[in-house]
């Protein structure tokens, strides 16, 4: 039997709201990642935004793999943003001891 949000005690609801607020403050937006890709993609700006520091530095010093990595990244940015957000959400929820249903 699963308890819905309405069945949670008030202190549990507050804990879940705090976790959600923390996640909202750190989640990444794909529109910003694509915007950075358009403006500074060849220098790895979108990778810096997503926290991929090693790849960002590699792109910075090779000018996006001479443009090849930059062109390929347009197909992978949305998936990378989802992965980063999923990882960050899982870390925050586990820190608050909140179990989520598998998706």
Topology readout:
Layout: H1 10-26, H2 30-40, H3 45-50, H4 53-66, H5 68-95
Helix pairs in contact: 1-5, 2-5, 4-5
Oligomer: single chain
- Distance N to C terminus: 18 Å
**Order of helix and strand elements from N to C terminus:** HHHHH
Output mean pLDDT: 90
Give the number of helices. Answer: 5
Strand content: under 5%
Count the E strands. Answer: 0
Largest sheet: none
Q: What is the SS-derived class?
A: mainly alpha
Helix content: over 70%
Domain TM2: 27-75
InterPro entries: TM2 (IPR007829), TM2D1-3-like (IPR050932)
Protein name: TM2 domain-containing protein
Pfam family, one: TM2
Describe the structure.
The chain has 103 residues and is mostly helical. 74% of the residues lie in helices and 0% in strands. The protein is built from 5 helices and no strands. The chain has helices at 10-26, 30-40, 45-50, 53-66, 68-95. Helix 1 (10-26) runs antiparallel to helix 5 (68-95), helix 2 runs antiparallel to helix 5 (68-95) and helix 4 (53-66) runs antiparallel to helix 5. The radius of gyration is 18 Å and the shape is elongated. The protein starts with 9 loop residues before the first helix and ends in an 8-residue tail after the last helix. The model has no long low-confidence stretch (mean pLDDT 90). Keywords: Membrane, Transmembrane, Transmembrane helix. InterPro entries: TM2 (IPR007829), TM2D1-3-like (IPR050932). This is TM2 domain-containing protein. The chain crosses the membrane at residues 56-78.
